Amino acid sequence: MYRYDEFDKAFVTARIAEFSDQINRRLVGEITEEEFMPLRLRNGVYLQLHAYMLRVAIPYGTLSSQQLRKLAYIARCYDRGYGHFTTRQNIQFNWPRLVDIPEILKELAEVEMHAIQTSGNCIRNITSDHFAGAAADEFADPRPYAEILRQWSSLHPEFSYLPRKFKIAVVGAQTDRAAIQLHDIGLWLKRNSSGKLGFTFYIGGGQGRTPMVAKLLHDFVLEEDLLSYTTAIIRIYNLYGRRDNKYKARIKILIHETGLQKLREEIEKEFAVLKASELKLHQSDIDAINTYFRAPDLTDCSEWHYNLKQLRLNDSAFGDWVNQNVTAHKHPDYAIVTISLKSTGGVPGDATSDQMDTIANLAEQYSKNELRVSYHQNLVLPHVALGDLKTIYDTLLATGLASANIGLISDVIACPGLDYCTLANARSISVAQQISTRFSSYERQMEIGAIKLNISGCINACGHHHIGNIGILGVEKKGTELYQLTLGGSAGNNCAIGEVTGRGFTADEIVDAVEVVINTYLSLRQSSEESFINTYRRIGIELFRQALYGTTRKIS
To answer: How many CB atoms within 10 Å of residue 540?
Structure first.
């Protein structure tokens, strides 16, 4: 993991002092809420329905045990005993008092954390593969490059006031586990035929009001040109991006209105100027960052495989958990453990202080002191010996964290919705809770198989409903909360935006509608091996519409 140097410490300390003064001025009435808004947003503080909310950055989703314990402490002492992990690999505290935020920021600084650039029209938290550095299908660890981008982008003087927020994601494996094609810039770290590392650049992805899958900009940019090429893209966006209409200010709209080829020409011209500048990454710089992400020392032990097999046979619930929540590690005697924050009837992404402390202890004892946050709103232990899986499972079971549902229908992604957010039109949490309860049976979930169900409480799509195999969007019509269904969305290598089925459903109807979709799929799939998304791609949306509305007519 990266460790702050003296510059980082001085930078964060100065920013805390500056923002603390701004908070004090707001508390005594020297500045209005309207004047305070741009100041607080630059420091990750939102004003929600009931209270201020603090969003803390977790760069590329990597945490230490010490950092998670600090988050647990903050939740216990300054909030209501829990935190909410988000789809940008951050954590949100929903109930801090404004007067306490300076102290919270000081607490975070003690463990090298902050809330800078988690909001505002700037480059947001750089996200990455939550299995980075551990996955068996990895070309190279993308986190050193995410860290380089983080250092370069933090308070970048040219890019602090972009036309709109700007999001970057980086992956380095065969499988895209960071939804890079839904970002303003998506970077895929690969090796070319000569064995050199470089990046495939995608630009213009995004969700929200106008969802778009990113377009391929450049097939291979050498690693030494990472900052030069990224700077060229954002400089052109900053120059031509619209500032007269926030709904048309993202780079995806600029591409749509200007054309990819025209924009590519402008970017290449800018890159030609920047290529030989001080932005060029020297190997010594890359090597220096890589030292912070050195793979941990792992012990060989082939006996663990036999012991694990026996334990799975003796405890079927443990076996189910291993099937769903444990992923292959690049070391054959280790595994990656995903801890579900989606218990039956629970709030997706929420973890209590006690649960965070338990997970921090597990990471310290059994995962080389490392944790990850996934954009699916779960936590990950990336380096677990096979011989420790049963101990971890037993501990999670005692803490209410042993749900064996990763990648199944109850592993719901959901935003906070109208329970917290001022932008929301409808509640997301209650719908997620009802769905997880309706489909709580492990046998039922296994019958359905792999599926992603995502819920957003408004068109801003913080719950990523556009890329759910089943997506639910909360809307408001004549004072009534309605829920619109989309089908066929997906993230990953074959990214797609879901298609709207038709009219919305009421809160009392939406879970039944989901069950209709599931039952229709089960009746139409060619075999138990055919997943929902593959069935949908084979047959299309019309038979689902007929089942939902009793018509095959296309509904615009």
So the answer is: 13
